[in-house]
Design brief:
This protein has 12 helices and 9 strands. It has 291 residues and is of the alpha+beta class. It has a 4-stranded antiparallel beta sheet, covered by helices on one side. A 3-stranded antiparallel beta sheet has the order 3-5-4. A two-stranded antiparallel sheet has the order 1-2. The longest helix is centred in the last third of the chain and has 31 residues. Pfam families: La. It comes from Opisthorchis felineus.
């Protein structure tokens, strides 16, 4: 029989409390929670939503022909270290995963599935949230909670502080949304565009003055980073303008002289001009000046 270490006195009765057993139960419950959190955190590191956008993790996976990553690297991540610094606990947690597998020697881990292909549609189901009120402080947990519904939770939440380098997958988005890299911004990915659109509505209800849009849209058009390429485009447009001007002048002269008598000729000329108008686009205003 186990000897109780603590005896509480309540009134005239003695109540024996088996403290050691209760402590053991609490320890095991806490350990199970930690194991589950470690598994979920590591599954996130290797997930389809994160792996292609996390350059460090992607490099680690690609550095091995079979996709193995040293557990020692994963165990150094701050979020894992907050949960445990015991290698055996990490091995136990990942051994329970249906998405990851641990090597026989217990020193490496990898995805069970091959690396996913890049999905260009991701920009149409990802939103940017920035220009929030000064008293608003957001964390990964708060953002996830805010945008979690009965239907689903965000696939990926990334928070960017001002002055921090923007990852390569968001470079193009930075041209559309200049707040990226200059202001505190949250970039949130969803499973589909419908969920992303609902999240935009929810964010605008919470913060009416905030800037919240799909990554694929913005208030600013991307700038052309290559001036030579831009110069070629302008030269190409000007060439067409000159040709169009010549055609217009020719039509004016021929029309006055009665030389355009064929309906086919008139139709072909009209179609040709329509094609020029379409190609010239924003440069059409230069035609009268050349004429």
């Amino acid at each position: 029989m186990e000897v109780p270490l603590v005896v509480d006195v309540a009134g005239s009765e003695l109540q024996i409390v088996d403290t050691p057993s209760q402590d053991k139960e609490n320890i095991f419950d806490g350990m199970d929670d930690a194991v589950a959190q470690i598994r979920e955190q590591c599954e996130f590191y290797f997930s389809d939503a994160n792996i292609l956008k996390d350059q460090f993790m992607l490099n680690q996976v690609k550095s091995s022909a079979d996709g193995w990553v040293k557990l020692g690297i994963i165990e150094k991540f701050k979020k894992v270290q907050r949960l445990t610094q015991d290698h055996s606990v990490v091995v136990r947690a990942l051994s329970m995963s249906s998405k990851l597998e641990v090597s026989e020697d217990g020193l490496s881990v990898r995805r069970r599935d091959p690396l996913p292909s890049w999905d260009p549609a991701v920009y149409h189901r990802t939103i940017i949230l920035t220009d929030l009120p000064e008293d608003v402080e957001l964390s990964h947990a708060k953002v996830t909670e805010l945008f979690t519904t009965d239907q689903a939770s965000p696939l990926l939440v990334r928070l960017f502080l001002p002055g921090r380098k923007v990852p390569s997958d968001l470079k193009r988005s930075q041209a559309l949304h200049p707040q990226l890299g200059t202001k505190f911004s949250a970039v949130i990915e969803f499973a589909n565009r419908t969920l992303a659109s609902k999240a935009i509505s929810r964010a605008r209800q919470h913060w009416p003055g905030a800037y919240v849009h799909l990554l694929s849209y913005g208030s600013k058009k991307p700038t052309d980073a290559n001036p030579k390429k831009k110069e070629k485009k302008v030269h190409f447009a000007c060439t067409f303008i000159i040709l169009a001007a010549d055609l217009i002048r020719s039509n004016m002269v021929n029309s006055r002289m009665g030389l355009l008598t064929s309906k086919d000729e008139l139709s072909a000329s009209s179609d040709f001009l329509d094609a020029f108008v379409h190609l010239l686009g924003d440069h059409l205003w230069l035609v009268p000046q050349i004429l």
